[in-house]
Amino acid sequence: MTTILTLLLLAAAVCAGGTIAALHLVRRGGAGWLALAVATAGAALGCAGYAFAAAFGAVTVDPVTALIVAAAGMLVIAGGGFAWLVDHKGEAPVALARMADMLDRAAFEQDLARAIAEADAAGTQVAIAAVTVDRFEGIVASYGQRFGDLVLGAIVARLAGAPLTDETFAQFGAAEYAALTRFADRTSMLDMLRRIELACTAPVEIEGVSVDVHAMIGVAIFPQDSRAATTLLDHAVLARHRATADAPVCFYDAPLDAQMREQRALAADLKAAIARGGIDVLYQPQVDMSDGTIIGYEALARWPHPLRGAIPPADFIPIAERHGLIGELGDWVLGRACSEAARWNFPCKVAINVSPQQLGEADLPARIHEALMFSGLPPRRLEIEVTESVIAANRAQALHALRQFKALGVAVALDDFGTGYSSLEVLGSFPFDKIKLDRSFVAKIEGNDQVLGIVRAVLGLGRTFRIPVLAQGIETEAQYRILRAEGCAMGQGYLMGRPGANPMPVVDGPRAAVRSAA
């Protein structure tokens, strides 16, 4: 009976180990932990069944068998415990960050209220800085959550040692911080901002890997910006949203931040529109300049806002980039365009733009591959368009991503060619499948010998590198005629066709344009 009881207890313990492993599976994922959970369940059921069989005399229990079952149970328990340790190891830096000498949000708001009351009585000022570590998601995507947590731990350690007597620092979230200082002299306030910026922007080295981090800082001041603590903090956050890599510190400005508040409202609407499929994808034809044959379509996102009407891409694309929605928007357009192009009964290519932020995401090639597999679109029918500025922002990372695109069998086009500072260098750094001449040159090509000379030079480069050139923004027959006479292979613009929801293999616009330009 003792042996039977032991087996039942072991079955319960094995179930506990399996539960831990299963929790790890839910949190982290992974086939290895799934196998451990399944094995644990099997071992537990085996122990229980063996015990009941022994209880009713179906089998004979001997010490050796009990020892083997016990050892198996202990191994599974150890596996579950190890899974728990791995699961929580990555959280250690954040937990340690909370133990540092930094307040949480509630304590910070109480301290802010006291500081405002004291400053009001003394006739001094209080400055609030809302701080965020920019592009932290990119670090996590490239190096993993544990590495990202270690980076944040290093930043928190720097910040914890930065405040002076009249300053308070707090941590609101994983990559979000706040600081306040009581001051009579603006110099001391600027000194605090300088120390925060230095702590959040100096390179961080973790386990031999150095990463660059960037801080975005918004500042609001009592009493000039507001006399209420919560409003002051909101103003600092609004100012932070205007910060850029070139201007990482922004002070609250009522007119500018009113626009920012409007943009945040639009960003919330945009996020909801993406989630419910409220973004339209239209297609503009790209044609062979010699005969007007359609050779492909460019997929273009359009946002029909339910209350504001059609919002131009020039307005909502920057909002998506500024508020971290460009990845979601890009994935929606990619998936929708691939799925629709796969259903076309003509084998035209579909071209999709990729933003600098998207190209910086390590898993973008995998997402493109997933979209192709899900839609069934052959890779040769997808073309990814990138601009010179995208490559210039992070040359090594960008070229690595482009090589991965090519490995998938996807074509790569260099968009807006001629507008950057290193066009020739970019052109020679990668085997592009197409050069897209920027529309600004096409718009001025009529009667402007200097622009015509630039266009001829670009076309000559295309011939030298054996890369076809597509001219964008063709709107007049004269532009079409000039470009075709100069040997431009492909064209795109309103003259040949406006963006539409239902692409056709042949439309009258391009052929009519050829006949008129002949």
Automatic annotation (TrEMBL):
| UniProt entry keywords in alphabetical sequence | Hydrolase, Membrane, Transmembrane, Transmembrane helix
Which InterPro entries does its entry note? Cyclic-di-GMP_PDE-like (IPR050706), EAL_dom (IPR001633), EAL_sf (IPR035919), GGDEF_dom (IPR000160), Nucleotide_cyclase (IPR029787), Rev_trsase/Diguanyl_cyclase (IPR043128)
EC number from the UniProt entry: 3.1.4.52
Q: Where is the GGDEF domain?
A: 124-254
Presence of keyword Membrane: yes
Is 4Fe-4S set as a keyword in this record?
A: no
Q: Which CDD domains match?
A: EAL
Full protein name: GGDEF domain-containing phosphodiesterase
